Amino acid sequence: MAIVDNAMSWSGTLRRLALGNPDFVRWLDMHAQTQLNHHVIDSWFIELSGQPVSDGVLSLEQCRKVLRQLRQRVFFLAMVRDLAGLASLEEVTGAMTRLAQLAVQQSYQTAATELANRWGEPIDPTSNLPQELILIGMGKLGGGELNVSSDIDLIMLYGEEGETAGPRKISNHEFYVKLIRMMLPIISEFDGDGQVFRTDLRLRPDGDSGPLAWSLNAFEQYLFTQGREWERYAWLKADVIPAKAFKNSNSLETVKNLESMRLPFVYRKYFDFDALAALRSLREQIRQDWERRATGRHGVDITSNIKLGDGGIREIEFVVQLTQLIRGGRMPVLQERNLLAAIAQQVSTGLLAPDIALQLELAYRFLRKTEHVLQYREDAQTHLLPQDPDLREALARAMGMSSQEFWATLDRHRHFVATLFKQAFRLAGLGESNEPTLPAGVSDDNSQKKESHRQFSQQLSAAITRFSEQRDELSARLSIFLEGHRIRALSAQNQQRVDSILMSTLAACAQTSQPLATIYKMLDFLETVAQRSSYLALLAEYPGALNRMARMMAASPWAAQYLLRHPVVLDSLISWQSMMEPIDFEKTRGTLKKDLDSCKLIDGQPDVEQQMNLMRDLQHQISFQLLAQDLEGLFSVEHLSDQLSSLADLLLQESITRAWPLVVNPGVNDTPIQPRLAVIAYGKLGGKEFGYSSDLDLVYLYDDQREHAQEQYAKLSRRLTSWISTLTSSGRMYEVDLRLRPDGEAGLLAVSVQAFENYEQEHAWVWEHQAITRARFCAGDLEVGAKFEDVRRKILMRRRDPADLRREILAMRDKITAGHPNRSDQFDIKHDSGGMVDLEFVTQYLVLLYASQYPALLENLGNIGLLNLAGDYGLIDTKLATIGANSYRSLRHRQHVLRLQGADKARVPQTELAFERKSIQALWQSVFETK
């Protein structure tokens, strides 16, 4: 009895129970070592009711009694085990959550059965099947973390309007309202056995003034026309409590529809910066809520409430859930209802530092344990710390600590949480915004509009003077812009915003190297996003992002076009320090996998559309981050190409993983779990010379002897190509070119390794062997990739007649020249004599001619590395090799710069790059001169 006595020394409610029911106290002692879990609680329900959990139906009175008896067992055993240090926080909250779910399920089944006997079952008019009420647990109930003396927050929805099937018909809505009014007293009314849970329906649309039950259509209309930021916060944890009262009913489709509404409402795909002000208000409301209540309680200050006070539980929830609201739309892995699980995911994705997360979790566990101990005392929903010295001492003992240790620990945790709460927006990656000052006099007051316009005009004129001789041209362009945005259907708030942003834009562009050209690009961007208040809010909230955007647009017209095509990347500019950090591809791979795994429909199937969009968004984000680093001069063209190639490899590998289950049933009928497929990269990706907008030149190889393997891998190839190249709402990942496969466009989409080897040995042209010199395995099955590399080595190590090879190479070079005529008076960096193609052909010729003697030439070192290696082996003059390699590097760099400037063709005046051109021409002549 020692364990029970320990709890009894703290809990008055347990002492009173012991006086009237000593047998139950002995029962507690017998079960003190029993861990509370779903199985145990469900078995107790069956024992008490004599009915199965899933489809048993109790009478009204029996249901009331059984649930109260079950609550007594769960609550008091949780108390005994918790105060003895035998139960974790997860055990206690999990037990109370399961109890609440059972209470809702059983009261629903009982009430629904009772009403259906009178009025008939409510019928879905579309399917003509019985229609269930959808029971939604909100708050800690939805998160699986209910406290021991909690209210339960519920919302009730149903699929469609209709009527019941009985002889005395009533509308579905009326049926459900009657049902709710019957089921709630079963749970919440006090009687001789107490109560189960207090129930609260005030989180439903329109609160107490709204109907008790809402149809899904009405709910959707409310959510997306009237839903407020605090409701997004509330619906983050919402979860459906499975319950079935009618045979042959199917609520799965309704639940799917509900989830399809909840997710985009809570988790915006592109963070809505309009929400920042509302979220800040919510943060302040959290602070003020308890202060208002405390003013009505003499002698009670804000530090007394461990839930609502400074450094309390509510502040921890806000810190964690703010990051979820901001980033959960793009990172589905963050869409966790349970707070501790949400903290863990934020650590795994690198959004929360492990040391901060550990302190936050320890604080949360300590505060929740304290909350429970306070509630055990009188089985009351209290969060107030005692003021009486004796009770404060007793509380510490109940927590298993000395008084000094407990209060010092509590103060330390609350100080940490309060500090973190003040930094919540910075912690969520939003920094601390500089909220801009709007043009003087801007107001919704009609009497001030003329004065506002006059002052804005004066400020605009002053700003234009910074552009000196271009003032007239700029004034005309601004007039067109202002007139355009004022006649568009912009809200009054956005017209304030646009004026403010315009002033900041002029100031930012005036500081760039090309102010006039930059302001025109910025105006193009503002016109594109003028109807998207979220982007305007971002630029208004974070003028630093606007300054960085102006700097990037001034440096690169191509970057300006990228921003116009993908404004979703704009929020990356908020934290410039993060933008300049190196890409951790292994971490990115892990986070992407978790995010894609989290993209599921309500029936557990993958949400393919969301997965495809998520991968495209990631590709755009990382490409933009590399672009920003590139414009800051952080790495060479070669390093940039390596980074872009690594990104493409990563996305290809993940695409295979996601596409395979859409084609076959992995693991069924000898079908491998992972496909025996290798993706072979040719061209720029193969040579790791990938650019921002390069295509993927791919060949698909498989090694699978099963009877239907060819058919399956052909389907996989089609699906994989579609996965990568289809244009979705998030754009396209990459363009894919499969024409380098055996037999080109007439060939099979997927080729067996053996067929590939036969083709390369027997039928391939020399130009195809040229192409394979810089082909590589980039994604897929490692064993199949290794077999490709073996085939590649065999092909490239064949001994070749120098004269025949020279003739074939020169003929192909002539074809390429004819295919890319240059009729201008400029030097085409890539295709003209002395250009990049010449050096690439030299390198390919040397590999094909000498790889049999020097196998190191088979390594995928890129043109520069291979050319220097050929010089080291004495295959060409060492000096020519070094100068040629350096010249090629210069040409690649200049080509890259021209691309960033928006040039369609990489051409320069004949006087430029003359040394590099002559160096490569000299190298060409030394290799291909007639013997």
From TrEMBL:
Domain PII-uridylyltransferase/Glutamine-synthetase adenylyltransferase per the UniProt entry, residue ranges: 281-424
Coiled coil spans: none
GO biological process, one term: regulation of glutamine family amino acid metabolic process
Enzyme class, broadest EC rank: transferase
Annotated Glutamate-ammonia ligase adenylyltransferase repeated domain residues: 61-244, 547-790
Gene Ontology cellular component list: cytosol
Chain residue ranges for the region called Adenylyl removase: 1-437
One Pfam family in the UniProt entry: GlnE
Organism superkingdom: Bacteria
Molecular function, one GO term: magnesium ion binding
Family the entry assigns: Belongs to the GlnE family.
Function summary: Involved in the regulation of glutamine synthetase GlnA, a key enzyme in the process to assimilate ammonia. When cellular nitrogen levels are high, the C-terminal adenylyl transferase (AT) inactivates GlnA by covalent transfer of an adenylyl group from ATP to specific tyrosine residue of GlnA, thus reducing its activity. Conversely, when nitrogen levels are low, the N-terminal adenylyl removase (AR) activates GlnA by removing the adenylyl group by phosphorolysis, increasing its activity.
NCBIfam families associated with the record: PRK11072.1
Protein name (Swiss-Prot/TrEMBL): Bifunctional glutamine synthetase adenylyltransferase/adenylyl-removing enzyme
Organism (species): Jezberella montanilacus
Encoding gene per record: glnE
